[in-house]
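Action item from last meeting closed. Structure (340 res):
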């Protein structure tokens, strides 16, 4: 039996407490008694004794029954954040997110900072272009699966230009004039979404980050086919681990400001999840012609829940309120963990 039910039963069984006298009601009652005494003759010789005023009974609501108390208890809704439908493993994902953030604070962010300051930007860009160029065959293949032969031909041309003139993809020559062939991300996860396969449950995995079941399967197919599409050296453990470290550090440097913004939210985990899912949906919509998101660059997504700014000291002549922080710009590059 709940505490509420016990308290209600105690009130029903306890002794009645007399209502306190209300001055306004007593004054009206005395006035009425005085008027009645003036109109009614009093027998001669009768002792004049003060007539006690009749107690005024205040209206009382009927006591609730036990059934009513139980029904009222059932109507109480405990407030709290419900688990979203797309995140059925929220407790596990939250724990994984917290663990990854702790590792990021202790290891990844400091190493990324050293990488950014110790490696000149042209070299970092060259490594990024080289790794990106290796993904072009998978991009072209998925454009064919999506019945977009024009995009597939552009991707093949871009791969050929950068692999030769661009010194193995280190220099992104194809994006500039006269070629004007920008990099476009694509993969099996995109193809699944293009044909209407839903994302499935959201997951936050170590070494992968935010993802969904559809994206994990698609990413696995991409990486499985990469050695067949490009060549055997991609199976070398030195290349596999080295490319993973370089790609992870590069993405950490490129998205440092975004990660700081997310951590300033009242619920960083939920904000990261929302931003990731909206980004992925924007990319799928772009494949269907609803947005131009596949070009290399960025897109402005719906703003995260803005964090209330700290209280500012009063300024005599400042009438304008501080502007809300701008909507985060989520770069299309690291939406799904980069290949290979």
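Sequence:
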């Amino acid at each position: 039996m709940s505490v509420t039910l016990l308290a209600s039963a105690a009130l029903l069984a306890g002794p009645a407490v007399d209502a306190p006298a209300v001055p306004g009601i007593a004054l009206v009652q005395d006035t009425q008694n005085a008027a009645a005494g003036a109109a009614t003759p009093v027998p001669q010789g009768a002792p004049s004794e003060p007539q006690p005023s009749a107690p005024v009974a205040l209206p009382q609501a009927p006591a609730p029954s036990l059934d009513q108390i139980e029904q009222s208890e059932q109507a109480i809704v405990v407030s709290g954040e419900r688990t979203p439908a797309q995140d059925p493993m929220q407790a596990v994902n939250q724990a994984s997110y917290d663990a990854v953030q702790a590792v990021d604070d202790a290891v990844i962010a400091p190493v990324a900072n050293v990488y950014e300051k110790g490696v000149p930007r042209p070299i970092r860009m060259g490594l990024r272009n080289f790794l990106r160029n290796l993904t072009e065959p998978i991009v072209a293949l998925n454009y064919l699966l999506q019945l977009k032969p024009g995009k597939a031909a552009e991707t093949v041309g871009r791969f050929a230009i950068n692999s030769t003139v661009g010194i193995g993809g280190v220099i992104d020559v194809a994006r500039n004039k006269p070629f004007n062939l920008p990099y476009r991300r694509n993969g099996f996860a995109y193809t699944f979404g293009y044909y209407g396969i839903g994302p499935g449950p959201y997951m936050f995995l170590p070494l992968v980050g935010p993802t969904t079941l559809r994206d994990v399967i698609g990413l696995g197919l991409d990486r499985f086919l990469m050695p067949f599409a490009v060549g055997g050296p991609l199976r070398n453990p030195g290349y596999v681990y080295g490319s993973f470290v370089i790609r992870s550090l590069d993405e950490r440097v490129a998205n440092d400001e975004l990660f700081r913004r997310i951590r300033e939210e009242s619920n960083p985990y939920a904000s990261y999840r929302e931003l990731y899912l909206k980004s992925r949906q924007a990319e799928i919509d772009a494949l269907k012609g609803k947005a131009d998101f596949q070009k290399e660059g960025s897109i402005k997504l719906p703003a995260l829940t803005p964090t209330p700014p700290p209280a500012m000291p009063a300024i005599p002549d400042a009438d304008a309120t501080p502007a809300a922080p701008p909507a985060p710009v989520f770069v299309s590059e690291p939406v799904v963990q980069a290949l290979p």
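Note appended to the action item: The radius of gyration is 36 Å.
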